[in-house]
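Troubleshooting log. The previous structure file for this entry was overwritten by mistake, so regenerating from the original sequence record. Sequence copied from the archived sheet and checked twice against the printout by T.R.
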Amino acid sequence: MEDNMMIDSTTPAQSSLTQNFQAIVNNNQVVLDWKYEMRRQMQEILPGLFLGPYSCSKEFDLLKQNNITHIVSIRDASEKRILRPRFLDDFRYFEIEVSDSPNERLIPHFPQAKAFIDDALLNNGKVFVHCNGGISRSPAFVVAYVMETTKMDYQHAYSFVQNRRFCMNPNEGFKVQLKEYEPIYSARDTINCHPYTQGELERQALRRSAPDDDDPNEFELARRAPSFHEEPQVQR
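Regenerated output below.
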């Protein structure tokens, strides 16, 4: 008899978190009367998940008042000396280096950002996600998180986040990538939840190595694909 191998890292706590968030996003309502000056503030998108500009990450008292424990800092190389972690002894940081360019690839960073956020929330932490202005890059990451966690499609997830931070406006390249990300994480979830026998895994490996099945494009995509099981690189 062949042993079944289930590749599924979902825990009861993660399932509960997903269900709670799904209930919230399914009741998508505008939750605030937006004013221009609110773009300089951070907003709570989901319980424990905040989004805003870099300036908020410099306000120690504000972070503590909102019980922030983890910070996702998104910046490019030119911003590194300015948009830097300031309270390494008090918060856990996850730094992502991407520019606000339509050609910048965000998708490879989404899984690790989600893992960092999930780890914080599942351990009763709270996360603040920021870029420079909280307009383009960080909202894109939060939309991706809402999509993957709640299984909500791009349009509804985008609307949900925007109803809480109205000034958000990811560049067009980021919007395209968010639409592309939906089938990617859906396919990954399907694979993770499919029980493979040892024999099936071996047969798939043999088919992959057969000369007739060699597809240069396929192997190039596989080589370039990000690892979805890497641990986030964090600073303490």
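DSSP finds nine helices and eight strands in the chain. Archived copy saved in two places this time.
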